Amino acid sequence: MTKYSNFAIIASFIGLWINSFFAGEFQIFVGFILIFSFGILHGANDLALIKNVNTEKKTSYFYKILFYYVCTVISGALFFYLIPWLALSMFIVVSGYHFGEQQWNNQLQIEIPWVKILYEMVYGLLLLFLLFAFHAVEVQKVILAISRITIPLPYFLLVLKILITLFIGLSVFLYFRIPAFKNYFFAELFYLFVFAILFKVSTLIWGFALYFIFWHSIPSIMDQIRFLFGKATLDNFKLYFRSAFVYWIVSLAGIFLLYFIFEGEKIFNALFFSFLASITFPHVLVIQKMFGRKK
Protein backbone atom coordinates (compact mmCIF):
# COMPACT_ATOMS: atom_id res chain seq x y z
CA MET A 1 0.00 0.00 0.00
CA THR A 2 1.19 3.53 -0.76
CA LYS A 3 1.38 6.30 1.81
CA TYR A 4 -1.56 8.03 0.17
CA SER A 5 -3.65 4.83 0.27
CA ASN A 6 -3.01 4.61 4.02
CA PHE A 7 -4.14 8.23 4.37
CA ALA A 8 -7.27 7.56 2.28
CA ILE A 9 -8.18 4.55 4.45
CA ILE A 10 -7.77 6.59 7.65
CA ALA A 11 -9.77 9.50 6.17
CA SER A 12 -12.52 7.09 5.09
CA PHE A 13 -12.88 5.58 8.54
CA ILE A 14 -12.86 9.03 10.11
CA GLY A 15 -15.75 9.69 7.73
CA LEU A 16 -17.51 6.62 9.12
CA TRP A 17 -16.94 7.94 12.64
CA ILE A 18 -18.53 11.25 11.61
CA ASN A 19 -21.39 9.23 10.11
CA SER A 20 -22.14 7.67 13.51
CA PHE A 21 -22.31 11.02 15.34
CA PHE A 22 -24.12 13.38 12.98
CA ALA A 23 -27.53 13.38 11.35
CA GLY A 24 -28.09 12.63 7.68
CA GLU A 25 -28.73 16.31 6.88
CA PHE A 26 -25.29 17.26 8.21
CA GLN A 27 -23.64 14.47 6.20
CA ILE A 28 -25.37 15.66 3.02
CA PHE A 29 -24.25 19.25 3.71
CA VAL A 30 -20.60 18.30 4.31
CA GLY A 31 -20.68 15.79 1.46
CA PHE A 32 -21.74 18.47 -1.02
CA ILE A 33 -19.04 20.82 0.32
CA LEU A 34 -16.43 18.13 -0.39
CA ILE A 35 -17.85 17.52 -3.87
CA PHE A 36 -17.97 21.27 -4.60
CA SER A 37 -14.36 21.72 -3.45
CA PHE A 38 -11.94 18.96 -4.47
CA GLY A 39 -14.55 17.09 -6.53
CA ILE A 40 -15.32 19.93 -8.94
CA LEU A 41 -11.73 21.23 -8.76
CA HIS A 42 -10.24 17.99 -10.06
CA GLY A 43 -12.08 18.48 -13.34
CA ALA A 44 -11.63 22.25 -13.60
CA ASN A 45 -8.14 22.20 -15.10
CA ASP A 46 -8.99 20.30 -18.26
CA LEU A 47 -8.02 23.18 -20.56
CA ALA A 48 -4.54 23.39 -19.03
CA LEU A 49 -4.21 19.64 -19.53
CA ILE A 50 -5.33 19.98 -23.16
CA LYS A 51 -2.56 22.53 -23.77
CA ASN A 52 0.00 20.01 -22.51
CA VAL A 53 -1.54 16.95 -24.15
CA ASN A 54 -1.49 18.44 -27.65
CA THR A 55 1.84 19.10 -29.33
CA GLU A 56 0.29 21.93 -31.38
CA LYS A 57 0.95 25.10 -29.36
CA LYS A 58 -0.66 27.73 -31.59
CA THR A 59 -3.12 30.02 -29.80
CA SER A 60 -5.72 29.52 -32.55
CA TYR A 61 -5.51 25.76 -32.04
CA PHE A 62 -6.14 26.15 -28.30
CA TYR A 63 -9.26 28.26 -28.91
CA LYS A 64 -10.45 25.64 -31.37
CA ILE A 65 -10.09 22.98 -28.67
CA LEU A 66 -11.82 25.30 -26.16
CA PHE A 67 -14.73 25.66 -28.59
CA TYR A 68 -15.01 21.87 -28.96
CA TYR A 69 -14.81 21.43 -25.17
CA VAL A 70 -17.64 23.90 -24.51
CA CYS A 71 -19.72 22.33 -27.29
CA THR A 72 -19.24 18.90 -25.68
CA VAL A 73 -20.45 20.22 -22.31
CA ILE A 74 -23.50 21.88 -23.88
CA SER A 75 -24.23 18.78 -25.97
CA GLY A 76 -24.10 16.65 -22.81
CA ALA A 77 -26.61 18.94 -21.10
CA LEU A 78 -28.93 18.83 -24.16
CA PHE A 79 -28.53 15.05 -24.30
CA PHE A 80 -29.87 14.80 -20.75
CA TYR A 81 -32.77 17.07 -21.66
CA LEU A 82 -33.75 15.26 -24.87
CA ILE A 83 -32.98 11.58 -24.13
CA PRO A 84 -32.42 11.43 -20.35
CA TRP A 85 -32.52 7.63 -19.97
CA LEU A 86 -29.83 7.09 -22.62
CA ALA A 87 -27.72 9.99 -21.36
CA LEU A 88 -27.90 8.65 -17.80
CA SER A 89 -26.93 5.16 -18.95
CA MET A 90 -23.93 6.55 -20.83
CA PHE A 91 -22.98 8.70 -17.84
CA ILE A 92 -22.92 5.66 -15.54
CA VAL A 93 -20.81 3.62 -18.00
CA VAL A 94 -18.38 6.50 -18.71
CA SER A 95 -18.09 7.33 -14.99
CA GLY A 96 -17.43 3.67 -14.21
CA TYR A 97 -14.62 3.57 -16.73
CA HIS A 98 -13.22 6.86 -15.40
CA PHE A 99 -13.17 5.63 -11.80
CA GLY A 100 -11.59 2.33 -12.82
CA GLU A 101 -9.00 4.07 -14.98
CA GLN A 102 -7.90 6.29 -12.09
CA GLN A 103 -7.69 3.30 -9.76
CA TRP A 104 -5.81 0.94 -12.10
CA ASN A 105 -3.98 3.00 -14.74
CA ASN A 106 -0.60 3.08 -13.00
CA GLN A 107 -0.69 -0.61 -12.01
CA LEU A 108 -2.34 -2.37 -14.93
CA GLN A 109 0.08 -2.65 -17.84
CA ILE A 110 -1.06 -5.08 -20.53
CA GLU A 111 -0.42 -5.36 -24.26
CA ILE A 112 -4.11 -5.89 -25.08
CA PRO A 113 -5.73 -2.41 -24.86
CA TRP A 114 -9.36 -3.58 -24.95
CA VAL A 115 -8.79 -5.94 -22.00
CA LYS A 116 -7.37 -3.06 -19.95
CA ILE A 117 -10.31 -0.81 -20.85
CA LEU A 118 -12.83 -3.57 -20.10
CA TYR A 119 -11.25 -4.39 -16.74
CA GLU A 120 -11.15 -0.74 -15.67
CA MET A 121 -14.77 -0.27 -16.74
CA VAL A 122 -15.98 -3.39 -14.92
CA TYR A 123 -14.09 -2.37 -11.77
CA GLY A 124 -15.51 1.17 -11.83
CA LEU A 125 -19.06 -0.05 -12.49
CA LEU A 126 -18.65 -2.55 -9.65
CA LEU A 127 -17.85 0.37 -7.35
CA LEU A 128 -20.91 2.31 -8.50
CA PHE A 129 -23.30 -0.61 -8.20
CA LEU A 130 -21.97 -1.43 -4.74
CA LEU A 131 -23.14 2.06 -3.83
CA PHE A 132 -26.40 1.69 -5.78
CA ALA A 133 -27.26 -1.69 -4.27
CA PHE A 134 -26.83 -0.45 -0.69
CA HIS A 135 -28.99 2.62 -1.41
CA ALA A 136 -31.30 1.22 -4.06
CA VAL A 137 -34.43 3.11 -2.97
CA GLU A 138 -32.70 6.52 -3.05
CA VAL A 139 -30.98 5.75 -6.37
CA GLN A 140 -34.30 4.59 -7.81
CA LYS A 141 -35.82 7.99 -6.93
CA VAL A 142 -32.94 9.91 -8.52
CA ILE A 143 -33.16 7.82 -11.71
CA LEU A 144 -36.93 8.37 -11.81
CA ALA A 145 -36.47 12.14 -11.44
CA ILE A 146 -33.91 12.23 -14.26
CA SER A 147 -35.29 9.72 -16.74
CA ARG A 148 -38.93 9.27 -15.66
CA ILE A 149 -38.23 5.53 -15.62
CA THR A 150 -38.65 3.34 -12.53
CA ILE A 151 -35.95 0.69 -12.17
CA PRO A 152 -37.16 -2.34 -10.15
CA LEU A 153 -35.13 -2.60 -6.95
CA PRO A 154 -33.95 -6.23 -7.53
CA TYR A 155 -32.24 -5.08 -10.76
CA PHE A 156 -29.53 -3.23 -8.82
CA LEU A 157 -28.48 -6.41 -7.00
CA LEU A 158 -28.72 -8.44 -10.23
CA VAL A 159 -26.38 -6.07 -12.08
CA LEU A 160 -24.00 -6.10 -9.10
CA LYS A 161 -23.85 -9.91 -9.18
CA ILE A 162 -23.11 -9.85 -12.93
CA LEU A 163 -20.33 -7.30 -12.41
CA ILE A 164 -18.81 -9.33 -9.57
CA THR A 165 -18.77 -12.39 -11.84
CA LEU A 166 -17.11 -10.45 -14.67
CA PHE A 167 -14.60 -8.91 -12.25
CA ILE A 168 -13.62 -12.31 -10.86
CA GLY A 169 -13.30 -13.82 -14.35
CA LEU A 170 -11.16 -10.96 -15.70
CA SER A 171 -9.04 -10.92 -12.53
CA VAL A 172 -8.28 -14.64 -12.88
CA PHE A 173 -7.30 -14.06 -16.52
CA LEU A 174 -4.98 -11.16 -15.63
CA TYR A 175 -3.58 -13.02 -12.61
CA PHE A 176 -2.13 -15.70 -14.89
CA ARG A 177 -1.43 -13.34 -17.80
CA ILE A 178 0.55 -10.65 -15.95
CA PRO A 179 3.14 -11.83 -13.37
CA ALA A 180 3.11 -8.51 -11.51
CA PHE A 181 -0.70 -8.42 -11.24
CA LYS A 182 -0.69 -10.42 -8.01
CA ASN A 183 1.54 -7.75 -6.36
CA TYR A 184 -1.26 -5.19 -6.27
CA PHE A 185 -4.47 -7.18 -6.88
CA PHE A 186 -4.96 -8.18 -3.25
CA ALA A 187 -4.42 -4.59 -2.10
CA GLU A 188 -7.11 -3.45 -4.55
CA LEU A 189 -9.35 -6.26 -3.32
CA PHE A 190 -8.92 -4.94 0.23
CA TYR A 191 -9.85 -1.44 -0.99
CA LEU A 192 -13.05 -2.87 -2.47
CA PHE A 193 -13.84 -4.29 0.95
CA VAL A 194 -13.26 -0.84 2.47
CA PHE A 195 -15.55 0.74 -0.14
CA ALA A 196 -18.27 -1.82 0.61
CA ILE A 197 -18.14 -0.89 4.30
CA LEU A 198 -18.26 2.83 3.45
CA PHE A 199 -21.26 2.44 1.16
CA LYS A 200 -23.12 0.10 3.50
CA VAL A 201 -22.80 2.24 6.62
CA SER A 202 -23.00 5.73 5.10
CA THR A 203 -25.82 7.61 3.44
CA LEU A 204 -25.85 7.79 -0.36
CA ILE A 205 -24.29 11.27 -0.67
CA TRP A 206 -21.83 10.79 2.21
CA GLY A 207 -20.59 7.42 0.96
CA PHE A 208 -20.20 8.75 -2.57
CA ALA A 209 -18.44 11.89 -1.32
CA LEU A 210 -15.91 9.91 0.75
CA TYR A 211 -15.00 7.73 -2.20
CA PHE A 212 -15.14 10.51 -4.79
CA ILE A 213 -12.88 12.87 -2.83
CA PHE A 214 -10.34 10.66 -1.07
CA TRP A 215 -10.06 7.81 -3.59
CA HIS A 216 -10.65 9.57 -6.89
CA SER A 217 -10.45 13.39 -6.94
CA ILE A 218 -7.35 13.95 -4.80
CA PRO A 219 -5.33 11.15 -6.50
CA SER A 220 -6.44 12.59 -9.87
CA ILE A 221 -5.31 16.08 -8.85
CA MET A 222 -1.93 14.65 -7.80
CA ASP A 223 -1.56 12.88 -11.18
CA GLN A 224 -2.52 16.08 -13.01
CA ILE A 225 0.02 18.13 -11.01
CA ARG A 226 2.77 15.64 -11.83
CA PHE A 227 1.80 15.80 -15.51
CA LEU A 228 1.68 19.61 -15.60
CA PHE A 229 4.55 20.51 -13.26
CA GLY A 230 6.62 17.35 -12.78
CA LYS A 231 6.09 16.78 -9.07
CA ALA A 232 3.17 16.81 -6.63
CA THR A 233 4.18 19.49 -4.09
CA LEU A 234 2.31 22.18 -2.18
CA ASP A 235 3.82 24.93 -4.35
CA ASN A 236 2.75 23.11 -7.51
CA PHE A 237 -0.72 22.60 -6.06
CA LYS A 238 -0.94 26.39 -5.67
CA LEU A 239 -0.04 26.75 -9.36
CA TYR A 240 -2.63 24.13 -10.24
CA PHE A 241 -5.31 25.87 -8.15
CA ARG A 242 -4.49 29.24 -9.69
CA SER A 243 -4.79 27.75 -13.19
CA ALA A 244 -8.12 26.02 -12.42
CA PHE A 245 -9.66 28.79 -10.29
CA VAL A 246 -11.73 30.59 -12.96
CA TYR A 247 -13.19 27.37 -14.41
CA TRP A 248 -13.88 26.05 -10.90
CA ILE A 249 -15.79 29.23 -10.00
CA VAL A 250 -17.78 29.10 -13.25
CA SER A 251 -18.76 25.48 -12.52
CA LEU A 252 -19.81 26.36 -8.97
CA ALA A 253 -21.82 29.33 -10.26
CA GLY A 254 -23.72 27.00 -12.60
CA ILE A 255 -24.51 24.58 -9.77
CA PHE A 256 -25.67 27.33 -7.38
CA LEU A 257 -27.81 28.85 -10.13
CA LEU A 258 -29.59 25.49 -10.43
CA TYR A 259 -30.00 25.38 -6.65
CA PHE A 260 -31.57 28.82 -6.36
CA ILE A 261 -33.92 28.14 -9.27
CA PHE A 262 -35.03 24.71 -8.04
CA GLU A 263 -34.48 25.08 -4.28
CA GLY A 264 -36.76 22.85 -2.28
CA GLU A 265 -37.71 20.72 -5.30
CA LYS A 266 -36.73 17.09 -5.70
CA ILE A 267 -35.71 17.82 -9.28
CA PHE A 268 -32.57 19.63 -8.03
CA ASN A 269 -30.77 16.36 -7.24
CA ALA A 270 -31.52 15.12 -10.73
CA LEU A 271 -30.33 18.38 -12.31
CA PHE A 272 -27.20 18.36 -10.13
CA PHE A 273 -26.14 14.92 -11.33
CA SER A 274 -27.07 15.88 -14.89
CA PHE A 275 -24.77 18.91 -14.61
CA LEU A 276 -21.96 16.73 -13.26
CA ALA A 277 -22.48 14.38 -16.19
CA SER A 278 -22.28 17.15 -18.79
CA ILE A 279 -18.85 18.21 -17.50
CA THR A 280 -17.72 14.60 -16.93
CA PHE A 281 -17.91 13.54 -20.60
CA PRO A 282 -15.13 15.88 -21.86
CA HIS A 283 -13.13 15.45 -18.62
CA VAL A 284 -12.89 11.69 -19.14
CA LEU A 285 -11.54 12.20 -22.67
CA VAL A 286 -8.92 14.68 -21.44
CA ILE A 287 -7.73 12.41 -18.62
CA GLN A 288 -7.52 9.43 -20.99
CA LYS A 289 -5.28 11.43 -23.31
CA MET A 290 -3.20 12.63 -20.35
CA PHE A 291 -2.54 9.03 -19.24
CA GLY A 292 -1.69 8.17 -22.87
CA ARG A 293 0.90 10.93 -23.01
CA LYS A 294 2.41 9.89 -19.69
CA LYS A 295 3.09 6.45 -21.14
One letter per element, helices H and strands E, the order comes to HHHHHHHHHHHH
Strand segment tally: 0
Q: Determine the mean pLDDT.
A: 81
Name the overall outline: globular
SS class: mainly alpha
- Number of helices, where a helix is a run of at least 4 consecutive DSSP H or I residues: 12
Helicity range: over 70%
Which radius of gyration do the C-alpha atoms yield? 19 Å
Q: Quote the beta fraction.
A: under 5%
The stretches of 5 or more residues where confidence is low (pLDDT under 50) are none
In whole angstroms, the N-to-C terminal distance is 22 Å
The major β-sheet equals: none
Tell me what you see in this structure:
The protein has 12 helices and no strands. The radius of gyration is 19 Å and the shape is globular. The protein is mainly α and 295 residues long. Helix 1 runs antiparallel to helix 10 (204-229) and helix 3 runs parallel beside helix 12 (267-294).
Give a quick summary of the entry.
The chain is mostly helical. It has helices at 3-21, 24-41, 46-53, 59-82, 84-104, 113-134, 136-147, 153-177, 181-201, 204-229, 234-262, 267-294.
